[in-house]
Design goal:
741 residues; alpha/beta; 3-stranded parallel beta sheet; globular; 29% helix
């Protein structure tokens, strides 16, 4: 890989003479008003265009504009023909295609695969304004309209589908989105580094098929591993155990055209020589013209830069869930930019090559990105129409990127990386003042200073050398790493300075707080609780049982109690009545009915009620999704004999797990009674405070065959309503839970 350049060190493209556009043009008329005869780059996105740094297409567009390129934007095009894609003409360099801030399938469907009626990234919140699998559809329409114009795909949808991945909506392992979209190049992660380098190379005449040495990209390669590269079999790094039997060569299948799947021993006890553990050094062997070596704890830098790990092919992982879990494990082990090697995976008769992740942005680069001339409002094209996602974030500020929590159900680490990328305090203060002075409707309240996690600002490994060599998926699980700096002082100073600015009435923290980190700094908790909570503070235990928590890589409930103790103490000192809102996920891998019952009893004991709950949604490439598909735990070595993970699949069990979270809803009582009888816990059915559900049923509630009361009504004849338990948390009735992650 070539060394990464500083993001704004390139010589500006000649078109910089046209200056800065008030908005990136969405029509030929706007282009003509700017004096443009063409665009250098056109971005196609599934979201409405909001010129705000919380929207990916705005950031990429403004970053490219700052490099001197003329950037046009096609937002939410009609995909039924090529007409909308031809609106701005042919770009001089390339089309950039993204599904938007959300994966289009997650945006369109609930965790139970039901179509959503709304879309927060569309004017008026209207649903149906983007196709399923938007990146694929948009790219194919661009190809139809403009033939050989280069197409670069990116954003969360492309990023999480850069390799063979389990697709929850089709219940199969799909091949990389790079092939299905017919794109030339895929950029993953936040991608400013990659997209700027690509633009400048193409502007200098480099062919897109020759861009193969850029971090954070994936591309198709013909002809196998190039000369000079060391190819490492992924099964020598982490032996996956016995695989499927060899494919019958007489079967006419796509998979049969590939090399037969090897049969490996389940363990050393079966007579095979055990392979070295990840901490052991291995030898090497020659295989054809490609050198194959076993895993080294410390591969020399020169070798690592020219090493590629051969992953099991798409056809093999599609046919063997255990091998899929193995591939997921290898992918996550090779995620640290400091030591990651390239990955290659066969798809049919071509190789899909994934270069190592991009080098994280420096503070100087982060500041420059967020200080670009965003208008911070939707494009005038939308008139007075409200865009719900914009209304939610228009007074919020991103202070960091990345997350080292490593929660298995979350896609942040796979997309943004685990190394925190920070903005400077001065840059953040400058943005607050800009919002105060220029954004319409500002009332003096900043809705969030945050990021993927509210309190990871400027936290990092104490040793850059250790950080660059580390292969752990989380810095805070099963406990906080002793090498992690947990000093919240820079964040406390930022909060204090921000709330003291003239014209600022309140600085709220809307991002989720990692409470196991927060308790390491009581001073931070005090500042947070006494000055930045608007009555409620959201935190995410996600579960309380060790079974699901160990599969989520989340801390135990003891950390919650420590944080709650500090929260209540500092709220009382400030004379404020404030509440914690804990979020939970139903039907996560590793969760049993007994786990959900335990959680329901905990919720009732603590007086929590929620009007809306979230069931686990297996997003592409997440570790928990590999669990969901394989029934194995890829946090450990994966074999057919390795740990089995309880997977609550099926609509009935998913509904039951959600019903436990909404134990107070009379419509769920028949289902819960049935489950409690089956689980041998009928003692929890009754009308006392220690019972979970009553024995009576209000008329008009429950399933059709149990729509009436199952026991006599109380004196007076009226059907009883569910009891409310008055505790310090009673005021939380009606609070909604967010999506995981």
């Amino acid at each position: 890989m070539l060394p990464s350049r500083e993001l704004f060190s390139y010589r500006k493209y000649w078109a910089s003479r046209f200056g800065t556009a008030p908005f990136l043009p969405m029509s030929r008329e706007e282009m003509e008003a700017l004096g443009w005869d063409s665009c250098d780059i056109i971005i196609v996105t599934g979201d409405a265009y909001v010129d705000h740094p919380s929207f990916g297409m705005a950031i990429i567009g403004r970053v490219l504009e700052a490099q001197g390129f003329r950037v046009g934007l096609i937002a939410q095009p009609d995909w039924h023909s090529t007409a909308d894609f031809e609106r701005l003409g042919r770009p001089n360099l390339f089309f950039g295609v993204t599904g938007g801030n959300m994966d289009s399938m997650v945006n369109r469907y609930t965790s139970d695969r039901r179509i959503r009626s709304d879309d927060a990234y569309t004017p008026g919140g209207a649903g149906g304004k983007r196709p399923d699998r938007s990146v694929i559809v948009y790219s194919q329409r661009v190809r139809e309209a403009f033939g050989e114009v280069p197409i670069v795909i990116g954003g969360i949808e492309a990023s999480l589908r850069r390799i063979a991945h389990f697709d929850y909506w089709s219940e199969k392992v799909r091949r990389t989105i790079l092939l299905d979209s017919k794109a030339d190049l895929l950029v993953y992660g936040n991608a400013e580094r990659q997209i700027v380098d690509i633009a400048h190379r193409l502007a200098k005449g480099t062919k897109i098929e020759d861009i193969t040495d850029l971090r954070g990209t994936a591309f198709v390669r013909q002809g196998g591993t190039p000369e000079g590269w060391t190819e490492i079999d992924s099964t020598s790094i982490d032996e996956p155990g016995r695989l499927n039997p060899p494919i019958d060569p007489y079967l006419d299948t796509t998979a049969a055209k590939n090399a037969p799947t090897p049969t490996l021993p389940r363990s050393a006890e079966e007579g095979a020589e055990a392979r070295p553990s990840p901490c052991a050094a291995g030898g090497g062997q020659e295989g054809g013209s490609v050198k194959v070596v076993k895993f080294h704890r410390q591969v020399p830098t020169a070798d690592r830069g020219q090493s590629v790990i051969r992953m099991p092919s798409h056809e093999k992982v599609a046919n063997d869930p255990v091998l899929y879990a193995h591939a997921s494990r290898i992918l996550h082990l090779e995620a640290n930019p400091g030591n990651a090697r390239a990955l290659v995976q066969r798809h049919g008769n071509v190789d899909v090559w994934l270069n190592p992740p991009p080098i994280p942005l420096s503070m100087k680069e982060m500041d420059a990105i967020y200080e670009l001339p965003y208008r911070r409002v939707p494009h005038p094209f939308y008139g007075e129409a409200k865009i719900p996602a914009y209304e939610m974030i228009r007074f919020s500020i991103a202070i960091q990127r990345g997350c080292f929590g490593g929660c298995t159900f979350c896609s942040i680490t796979e997309h943004e990386g685990r190394i925190i990328q920070n903005r400077s305090e001065n840059s953040i203060i400058k943005e607050i003042e800009e919002i105060r002075d220029s954004v319409p409707g500002f009332t003096g309240v900043i809705s969030d200073l945050g990021g993927p996690t509210a309190n990871m600002y400027r936290l990092a490994c104490k040793s850059p050398k250790i950080e660059s060599a580390c292969r752990k998926p989380s810095c805070v699980y099963p406990g906080i790493c002793p090498n992690l700096n947990t000093d919240h002082t820079p964040l406390i100073k930022l909060y204090q300075r921000a709330r003291s600015l003239p014209g600022i009435k309140k600085i709220l923290i809307g991002s989720g707080v990692r409470y196991d980190l927060a308790v390491e700094s009581p001073e931070y908790v005090k500042e947070l609780v006494q000055h930045h909570v608007g009555g409620y503070l959201k935190i995410a235990p996600e579960a309380i049982g060790e079974g699901p928590l160990s599969k989520m890589m989340k801390p135990g409930v003891g950390s919650y109690y420590k944080f709650k103790e500090l929260f209540d103490k500092y709220s009382k000192e400030a004379g404020k009545e404030q509440y914690l809102i804990p979020y939970f996920i139903a039907a996560h891998p590793g969760t049993t009915d007994e786990d959900m019952l335990e959680l329901a009893l905990w919720l009732k004991k603590n007086g929590f009620r929620a009007d809306q709950v979230q069931a686990f949604l297996p997003s592409p490439m997440a570790t928990a999704t590999a669990m969901w598909h394989s029934g194995k735990n890829p946090l450990k070595k994966v074999t057919h004999a390795s740990e089995e993970v309880a997977i609550p699949k099926g609509l009935k069990v998913r509904r039951l797990h959600k019903a436990f979270l909404r134990y107070h809803d009379a419509n769920n009582w028949p289902m819960l009674r049935e489950a409690l009888h089956r689980m041998g816990r009928a003692d929890l059915i009754g009308n006392g405070k220690h019972h979970l559900v009553p024995i009576w049923q209000p008329a008009g509630t429950g399933e059709a065959h149990e729509g009436r009361r199952s026991s006599p009504a109380p004196k007076g004849g009226a059907a009883r309503k569910p009891m409310k338990f008055r505790t310090q948390h009673t005021g939380l009735k009606g609070v909604k839970l967010p999506k995981p992650g």
